[in-house]
Amino acid sequence: MSHKHILTRRKFLGSVGWGCASLGLTPLYSGVTNLGLMNAAAAANRTAFTTGGYKALVCIMLTGGNDSFNMLVPRGQSEYEEYAGVRSSLAIPQNDLLPIQPTNVEGMEFGLHPSLVNVQNLFESGDAAFVANVGALVEPITVENFQDDTSLPIGLFSHIDQRSHWQTSVPQSINELGWGGRLADILHTNNSNQDVSMNISLDGVNIFQKGNIIQEFAIGYQDNGSVLLNGIGENDLYNSIKRQTLDNLLDQTYHNILKTAFADSVIDSNTSSFNFSSALANGTPITTEFANDAFSQKLLMIARTIAARADLGVCNQTFFVELGGWDNHDDLLADHSALLSQLDTAIGSFNAAMQEIGVSEDVIGFTMSDFGRKLTSNGDGTDHAWGGNSLVFGGAVNGRKIYGQFPELYLGNPLDIGGGRLVPTTSCDEYFADLALWFGASHSDIDQILPNITNFWTPDASGPLGMFV
Q1: How many CB atoms lie within 10 A of CB 244?
Q2: Roughly how many angstroms between the first and final C-alpha of the chain, as a whole number?
Q3: How far apart are CA 32 and CA 46, in angstroms?
Q4: Per-residue pLDDT tens digits for 236-295
Q5: Which of 394, 421, 393 shows the shortest CA–CA distance to 407?
């Protein structure tokens, strides 16, 4: 018995490749990575304006939980002895540390992991800073509050929950919107070109860039970052028919509002892909050399995108990129050193590229991670903890400083909730508020972007940490 193979509209849409995903029922409800359904429905009502200038935030997610007390280390004799005592076999030798001289911390000396040569240079030149003992908090907390189990982030010490909290800055709940998305919802009309999202992701769908109106536009890091349908740019007979068939389907008038919004999103995504690839091809070439690993190449693609800002018609952009592998329960010294070297090399090239295209004062990079890790060793690595240290870099940073309170590193210190797990003394909200204000948010907008910020700071014209002047 023979069977006819009929290519229905549903089968066709389900079989066409869309970047790394597919254009089927799942993306109908959750995933065209340019404009969300709400954005598609609202697109016709936008009025764009340009405020002038350019600013970009580059969010680097160190996925897995960075052992950041081996990244930023006390180097003075007494403080180093405390550090070495609690870290035991995982301590970085004192003479191997790269010295830095923060200008706002008296009576303490610091050093960086020996892999962070470029970061050391950025810090000493005033173009980088650290935020010490920062973490996801609902409100200020003490060890006693922790023991009473009040006002804690949900899923504390859980990878998936804590990673989400850093991206949403709403750790008391499971939230689907990110603070970068809420920021873009407020500022996206600064961009004269509304065909490409303000939020560009090098690692697909993420929470950080998801807003009510604006979501991420996912790009690749090869060629021109094309996210076109597979084969749609090719001119052979099969792909020409596929392209024409898709165009015919999208040109149809759908009466169902959800189908209409979905079709509009696909059209917008398709238009965005062509516009983005064209702008990138016409942008200022980047001559700075980048390493060949995927993370460095992603930062190169971000640099190329920034170089194409005039062709893209944008004044504000956020970027999201991940570097995985930081869940070092074992082999910490070797694996962590390799990861920090990879991070350092990529940041060094990225900073040089920003100088090359003349925007070093207009682009800020910053790190996030799931959480810090325990000060104590589990034998060959470290386990999940809470507070940790983050890096901020760029020409506009009020650098050569350590913001927040660097903790004492001994077991049983006033912030230790057990085993060298430290209660954060700076909230993510304070860290992110400085970034959002620099980016262009007004102090009156901050509590819409960061709902818990008033638990830590009363919004005014200056930031809570003062990272930018």
Answers
A1: 10
A2: 77
A3: 20
A4: 555 555 445 544 544 444 445 444 433 344 334 555 677 788 889 888 999 999 999 999
A5: 421
Residue 380 lies in a domain: yes
Q: DSSP label at 230? A: T
DSSP 213: S
| Integer Cα distance of 308 and 319 in angstroms | 14
Alpha helix positions (H), 88-158: 117-124, 143-148
Angle CA 280–55–273, to nearest 5: 30
Task: Give how many domains the chain has, as a whole number.
Answer: 1
SS3 76: coil
Tell me if 469 is assigned to some domain. no
Q: CA-to-CA distance for 105 and 389, rounded, in angstroms?
A: 15
Strand pairing class (363-369; 55-62): parallel
Please list the helix, strand and coil fractions of the chain in percent, rounded to the nearest 5, in that order. Answer: 40, 15, 45
DSSP state of 43: G
Task: Identify the CA nearest to 298 among candidates 201, 211, 217.
Answer: 201
Q: pTM score, two decimals?
A: 0.83
Count of C-beta atoms within a 10 Å radius of residue 245: 15
Tokens, residue 266: 């696909």
**Whole-angstrom Cα distance, residue 163 to residue 157?**
10
Residue 188 has what DSSP assignment? G
Whether 117 is covered by a domain: the verdict is yes
Contact (CB, 8 A) for 187 and 198? yes
- Supply the range of the domain harboring residue 280: 9-436
Asked if 165 contacts 153 with a C-beta cutoff of 8 angstroms, the reply is yes
DSSP labels, 389-415: EEEEESTTB--SEEES-PPP-STT-TT
E-strand stretches of 316-373: 316-323, 363-369
Residues 67, 373 contacting (CB under 8 angstroms): yes
Most confident of 184-188, 191-195, 237-241: 184-188
Structural element, H or E, at residue 336: helix 332-356
Cα–Cα distance measured from residue 375 to residue 106, given in angstroms and rounded to the nearest whole number? 23
pLDDT in tens, 25-66: 333 333 333 333 333 333 333 333 334 599 999 999 999 999
Q: What is the DSSP string of 279-309?
A: HHHHSPPP-S---SSHHHHHHHHHHHHHHTH
- Segment 298-319 mean pLDDT: 96
Tally of CA atoms within 13 A in the half-sphere of 129 that contains its CB: 26
In a domain, 330, yes or no: yes
The CA dihedral of 421, 426, 432, 434, to the nearest 10 degrees, is -150
Q: Count Cβ atoms within 10 A of the Cβ of residue 379 and give its class: 0-12 exposed, 13-18 middle, 19 or more buried.
A: exposed
